[in-house]
Amino acid sequence: MITHPNYDANDPWALRERGLDLGTLAQSESVFALANGHIGLRGNLDEGEPVGLPGTYLNGFHETRPLPYAESAYGNPEAGETVVNVTDAKLMRLHVDDELFDVRYGELLSHERVLDFRAGMLRREVHWRSPAGAEVRIRSKRLVSFSQRGVAAIEYEVEPVGRSARLVIQSELVTNEDGHTGAPSGPGGAEHGGDPRGAAALAQPLEGLESFADDMRVSLVHRTKRSGALVCVSADHEVEGPAGTETTVEHGDDAARVIVAADVPEGSTLRVLKFISYAWSGHRALPSVRAQARGGLAEAAHTGWDGLCEEQRAYLDAFWEGADVEVDGDGELQQAIRFSLFHVLQAGARAERRAIAAKGLTGSGYDGHAFWDSESFVLPVLTYTSPDAAADALRWRFETLGLARDRAQQLGWAGAAFPWRTITGQECSGYWPAGSAAVHIGADIADAVLRYQRASGDPVFAREVGLPLLVETARLWISLGHYDRKNRFRLAGVTGPDEYSALSDDNTYTNLMARRNLLGAAEAVDAHPESAAGLGVGHDESTQWRRAADAMHVPYDGILDVHMQAEGFTHHAVWDFEATPAENYPLLLHYPYFDLYRKQVVKQADLVLALYTCGDRFTAEQKARAFAYYEPLTVRDSSLSACVQAIVAAETGHLELAYDYLGEAAYMDLHDLEHNTRDGLHIASLAGSWLALVAGFGGFRDHDGVLSFAPRVPPGVDRLAFRIGVSTGRVLVEVDAENAHYTLQSGEALEIHHHAELVHLTADSGRVSRPIPPLPHRERPRQPSGREPLRRSAPRA
Amino acid sequence: MITHPNYDANDPWALRERGLDLGTLAQSESVFALANGHIGLRGNLDEGEPVGLPGTYLNGFHETRPLPYAESAYGNPEAGETVVNVTDAKLMRLHVDDELFDVRYGELLSHERVLDFRAGMLRREVHWRSPAGAEVRIRSKRLVSFSQRGVAAIEYEVEPVGRSARLVIQSELVTNEDGHTGAPSGPGGAEHGGDPRGAAALAQPLEGLESFADDMRVSLVHRTKRSGALVCVSADHEVEGPAGTETTVEHGDDAARVIVAADVPEGSTLRVLKFISYAWSGHRALPSVRAQARGGLAEAAHTGWDGLCEEQRAYLDAFWEGADVEVDGDGELQQAIRFSLFHVLQAGARAERRAIAAKGLTGSGYDGHAFWDSESFVLPVLTYTSPDAAADALRWRFETLGLARDRAQQLGWAGAAFPWRTITGQECSGYWPAGSAAVHIGADIADAVLRYQRASGDPVFAREVGLPLLVETARLWISLGHYDRKNRFRLAGVTGPDEYSALSDDNTYTNLMARRNLLGAAEAVDAHPESAAGLGVGHDESTQWRRAADAMHVPYDGILDVHMQAEGFTHHAVWDFEATPAENYPLLLHYPYFDLYRKQVVKQADLVLALYTCGDRFTAEQKARAFAYYEPLTVRDSSLSACVQAIVAAETGHLELAYDYLGEAAYMDLHDLEHNTRDGLHIASLAGSWLALVAGFGGFRDHDGVLSFAPRVPPGVDRLAFRIGVSTGRVLVEVDAENAHYTLQSGEALEIHHHAELVHLTADSGRVSRPIPPLPHRERPRQPSGREPLRRSAPRA
Asked: CA A708 → CA A456, A612, A724, A753, B725, distances in Å?
């Protein structure tokens, strides 16, 4: 754990950093990243240096590279996709008298950065004395617009202190910055020692096609060398300064700049507004891309700085109204959950039929790929807080259905095989036992479709997007599975969520999720028979799906009386945790997959994830026994685990343990728990902190369309409040130690469950309160030695 | 199948090719390769062109190259080793008048090549008319000496026909020839489309350090660029020609030559003798390597051409006396089995503490790596026919024990983990599920040790070589396995012989072979308690081994009443053979491992191999049922399968089927059945043809030190005779349709089993005959559609 000493945990609506710790600069660049799902700017300092990892990312914009194999094999993807750090437009370099402003030189009298969750803005205030003694205050504000998706804007102000100063501000566009490495690494866990070839392929990835400067406008157009994608960035400026302020422009292949020079008296200010517009395409021609960037720029300048700030505030006010989570009694957690929701929104808000990557647009980790993280962790949040973003993420999957069909065909199967990791929809996984073999991705997508459909009630989406996704994923299961001699439907040789197991028979999570997928597809066919016929689905096929779902095998250890993660799992040797020193975690950096796969050791919730996502298929007693069995085997080497363990711990009555896990999920990046926040934020874990609160302590489930709650607050929290929005209304849930209170904030009427009791909410029913039933006592499960979560829940005095 | 139309199948002691088929040139270069286990020359034409794949290989001489991974992981080998085509010393180029001799131009009046299994020599006779009408007869003889291991020699004679001719013979050394590709490919099966980087790393692999020419001696010294190994080749010449014959020498970095020019009258001959000596080392300095080559050359020239030929003949006479197999009634098979034995000898004779590669020294296939092929297929032949070669091969493993211990430690285990594929002992497998996970290699080595010890009775070997190998392999099993709740010892997540399955629990072959390893190690410790103590083995440890062996789990399907290849195997879906078109074999080129692993489809004998190697652990009835069950699942996409299927088919009474499989094993390379003989011979399959005859139709087993025979000849064979040599004597076994006859050819007394009847043989007992019991009728098992073996056993009229 790296706690960041400069973060102030007391502000409920902002993350404030006082001072500047260059040792954790890269981490803070991820934390202070701004994005809208379409474009993303890392929180690099305005002046470009010092820098941890420079980063500007455009959703879907990537370079391809060959995937190397020591031994080739049929079906291995030949090409990978890697996110590209595009032209950096956020650079504002400052000269004070004859010295370049650099926090490493001179004297940094004060430095503060604030990420404002309501303003949607990164503010910075610097007080600096140059080595020669000139003093300035610098104030910058940066936003990536939620309302104008290709647009970012910067306000940059400098004020001499004590005496006048000669100031030069250079507002730059710079392409092919050094420092970007795209070394491949595994998903969901700590980074491993990368392959230098991965990085080599991406040095200088862009070739310049066009540069332009006129008045205070500059523009650069580049193309990726292999994938041939075009990117155009344009910037315009407004300058306010004392009389005599001069501007000039320059441009070259990989750089363009506007230079503002002024003699500024003490008390006066030199202010530069920079409007930035990005456009890109893998298909369209240069004039079209250029025109799109120019159009976006014109609109942004027309809106103006104040207008952009107002739009931003309005967008976020609307978001928080439906999404906010209140945690009274734990201010640090309150801040962390809003930080999480803000970044989840930034990852998905305007992705608009492009992927939501595991790192969002905050870093180049995992090559910028999207995984199941999106459907299984991010969309459950967005579905109830920002449903349009959830719908668009699923539309993106729908648009890649052709590629997924091709992939299934290549592998010899029917239906669609969605990629384990991708930017465009092409499978980019170079290690198939933890890639293509993780076929649960298909069921995860289907599950997200079904959830969105229940919440939205959108018949057009259901028919045009949901149905084809459900049908093609269902077909894959029929093609993958077989009936055994006992007429059980089985899925052999697949990899479940736990990446310390692979190629197992009948992974319980996968089988139960496939069951849901098959039933959901059959119901969708019943609901849309004509559209289904258009996809070639008749009654026979959907009957086949129902039969397979009914016959789905779920492996159970009758002696231990516990569900098996997969067939035979509980017969394996238990990992020798006592002999595993703390420094050998994450295990994948110190032990071969060979040994991990063959033993009972769990990287991340797998059977325990099934207890949550398919909770309707387990009794309460089974859940309690399974959680108690798998806890001592689960090492949480993946950032996707703590939030799930929090949910199931809460459901099985371990509220303090749940609170501890919630802390891990919520502070994954603020405390850099996996030591790789520098490469980008763990968006799924951030989403998971919402899940831990809402599904964990709120006990929220949505298995059958009725919103169910079984709330209980942990000892450290006085009151928990959250909102769940569906098409028929939005309910505010407030929970304290004794009671839960339900308020219908919009809509006419809604039925919910409170601890299995049906409660009718109407527009007039106001705040309906229900008592919280007592909790059965269960002994706190133990974890592998040295892998206990940090105790957040110190027993109260 | 590519039958070679030019091979004459009628010569029992030689392979004769009439004419020259350029379309199968590369295949014939493998077939006509000469080697002695130390150096190997492909059967390239003397004049160097046309050429399929130029090749000269030195055992152990290799280049290293980085092994690339799309996703890195702990324990993946970082470097691979690849055999290098070294300086070509067999080149003899001929000018006739003013034209270069090239079979593609002018008129090839006759062309014959003969590989003589008793002379140990490749002879060639050519009658050629140049485009300008000059006619010559060319006779060349080439040998790689068994008696002088670094030495090869060539006799090259040219005689003008019809009129005199101006002849120039250029005897060359040439380094860094084009045409060598080291593309990686999987073991035991057909080659796949390789990674071009594998080849790129090996273009021009040698850098010149020294070249030299004096009188008629030339010499070149080179070094590999990465691994830094030195190779020196020296050649000396003797020339006989008409008066006026002149010689000159030239030398440069990558070439040296002796040029012989003469005006030769009709009826006269120009004759050049070339003595070649190779020396190489990865450790020693240049002067030492140079001196070794020079010394070998001097000895060869001193011995002279006739002397080398005599030594060669004497060596082979001794070999055939103990190794010959006679097959009366099937001349083609007679030739093929001697061809096989000759090449097995060439692969192993003088390997002398270096590896016996899968391709021997006949081609660059599989990067020149050694696999389990050596211990499991080649050594069972050499142990009883050329025991010193078997001992040396095991001494090589012993000398790599340090590397294997290091590898085990890296993987987190005790004992020794031998590499799946290697040249030096370093693991070079870049795909661990079919590499490091195939831990049965350790038991295969232990089995070969135990077999050699039983046969040789050599106590020094047993103590100094056998004991450490047995102890360290046994330790691996204890570290890999665990006791389950029923106190069964289990080995989870390993890969057995069948490469269409991987990472299974309790592979029956592996478990039973591990059991033998553990018991053998415990017995070795009892036999050598002091040496064992020196290895840290006490009574407690060997007791632990015995306990694990006794508790070893063997998975059995009680419903089907058949042994499982691995736990759960028979619960998997059966591969859809009916839907698999013939052109989709080998399956690995058309289907992903993902799908192959999860279904019942067997690349090569696995459970059926266990029926043979661990036949003492199955009843006759179990064997019959298991063979009948696995035959319809086995596609024989590996060259290691047919011979094993032949053995078990014979044992279970399917003599005609066994005969068919024997044909496949014996003609693997002569008929190019796997379409990759161009890359080198399948040494294990060649050895397997001996096994199919001796263990199959001879019913030879050696499970407990008593040589057991259960002979039965198939319908196509009148008489089968073979020899088995052990330290106490050599027995000649002759079998006809009614009787078996046993003769002790050397030694005082030997007990054998004939169909379970104990028979005492003595020096005086002469030819002891026993009747062959009748065969129970069993229905011929079927194979997957389209994968039936070619029928060799047409029912006789």
From this structure: 17, 13, 11, 4, 80
For the stretch B30-69, pLDDT in tens is 999 999 999 999 999 999 999 999 999 999 999 999 999 9
Q: How far apart are CA A238 and CA B427, in angstroms?
A: 64
Cis check: omega of the bond before B714, within 30 degrees of 0: no
Query: pTM score, two decimals?
Result: 0.94
pLDDT at position B303: 98
Task: Tell me the residue length of chain A.
Answer: 797
Cβ <8 Å between B73 and A588 = yes
Which one-letter DSSP state was computed for residue B494? B
Measured CA to CA, the distance from residue A558 to residue A571 in angstroms comes to: 12
- Cβ distance B634 to B652 under 8 Å? no
Residues of B within 8 A of A484 (CB-CB) are 571
Tokens of A230: 């075009």
> For residue B369, which amino acid is it?
H
How far apart are the C-alpha atoms of B519 and B477, rounded to whole Å? 12
Per-residue pLDDT of A216-250, as tens digits, reads 999 999 999 999 999 999 999 999 999 999 999 99
Which candidate from A411, A490, A571 shows the least CB-CB separation from B595?
A411
Nearest to B480 by CA among B412, B404, B403: B412
Pairing of strands A326-328, A107-116: unpaired
pLDDT tens-digit profile of B451-504?
999 999 999 999 999 999 999 999 999 999 999 999 999 999 999 999 999 999
At B179 the pLDDT is 60
- Tokens 């104990």 appear where? B758
- 3-state secondary structure at position B43: coil
SS3 call for B473: helix
Please state, in angstroms and rounded to a whole number, the distance separating the CA atoms of residues A280 and B412: 49
Q: Where are the alpha helices (DSSP H) in A163-230?
A: 196-200
pLDDT above 70: percentage of residues in chain B: 96
Q: Where are the beta strands (DSSP E) in A188-269?
A: 206-214, 217-224, 230-240, 246-251, 255-264
Cβ contact (<8 Å) for B482 and A589?
A: no
Please name the amino acid found at residue B231: V
Tokens read off for A286: 């240069």
Q: In the β-sheet with B151-161, what is the strand arrangement from edge to edge?
A: B7-8, B14-18, B107-116, B121-129, B135-144, B151-161, B270-281, B230-240, B217-224, B206-214
C-alpha dihedral (A517, A518, A523, A528), degrees to nearest 10: 90
Residues of B in Cβ contact (< 8 Å) with A590: 74
Rg of chain B in Å (alpha carbons): 27
What digits encode the pLDDT tens for the residues B345-392?
999 999 889 999 999 999 999 999 999 999 999 999 999 999 999 999
Mean pLDDT confidence for A684-704: 96
Angle between helices A331-348 and A387-399 (to 10 degrees): 40
Asked if pLDDT for residue B180 goes beyond 80, the answer is no
Size of chain B in residues: 797
Q: What is the ipTM of this complex?
A: 0.92
Compute the distance between CA of residue A570 and CA of residue A631 in angstroms, rounded to an integer. Answer: 14
> Per the omega criterion (within 30 degrees of 0), is the bond before A433 cis?
no
What gap in Å lies between CA A262 and CA A271, rounded to an integer? 10
Would the pLDDT of A187 be above 50? no
Nearest CA in chain B to A495: B594
The owner of tokens 């020339």 is B239
Cα of B551 to nearest chain A Cα, Å: 15
Rg (CA), chain A: 27
CA distance to partner chain B, nearest, from residue A290 (Å): 35
Q: Which two tokens stand for residue B566?
A: 């691995």
Average pLDDT over residues B200-225: 90
Contact A128/A162 with Cβ under 8 angstroms?
no
Q: Do A505 and B571 touch (CB under 8 A)?
A: yes
Closest to B455 in 3D by CA, of B386, B377, B371, B356? B386
